[in-house]
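Feature request, filed as a ticket because there's no other form

It would be nice if the structure record came with a short human-readable summary line next to the tokens. Right now we just get the raw output. Example of a typical job, pasted below so the devs can see what we mean:
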Amino acid sequence: MQHTEAHLKSSDIVTDIVIGMSDGLTVPFALAAGLSGAVSTTAIVITAGLAEIAAGSIAMGLGGYLAGKTEQDHYNSELKREYSEVENVPDLEKQEVRDVFKEMGLSEQTRYIIADEMAKDKDKWVDFMMKYELGLEKPDPKRARNSALNIGISYIVGGLVPLSPYFFVKRPIDGLFYSCAITIAALFIFGFFKAKATGQKPWSGAIRVTLIGSAAASAAFFIARLFS
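Raw output as currently delivered:
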């Protein structure tokens, strides 16, 4: 009988899309809702909404880029330190290898054999220490750039959903009505697939994301109404 392991692949891409889409759906939705309670023309809502989407996508994309660069710089720094340690204090590094396999339950004789064999290849030795001592995987060199693009584009796509109805109506309050219907449906669908992709309960995830987005928009609308 063939066994298929259902592990999540391309988790970095999924994470980026979740980050960009979740903010893209909620922040412009809340902004448009707030303005709909304070202004009398959809042109203002559209202008402010597009400006927010542009600024938000750049800011979010930049955040993803910096996070990716930080991860890569941290890995390179630790890699350099590990090479220095296997060169200058090999006995200590061998002991660390033996300690790793001790936790796995291997016998003392086997631990010594493995450590001595591993020390013959510094690259594999360092790679082992990076993974099992420090818990670090080599990051994709294109990760920072890809993360910025994935998050930024996802933010734009998400942001255009609540803003799109305002292009087809004259009164902001009418645009808000259609925007609520479209965005709540989009939040529910997004929450469902987000939860499913991350191994959570899809229906509870869908409801949670929908409630958060709706609460943000409602708060913005009533605050704008109050001060206007």
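Something like this underneath would help us a lot:
The helical segments are 11-36, 42-88, 90-103, 108-118, 122-132, 143-163, 172-197, 202-227.
The chain is about 80% helix and 0% strand.
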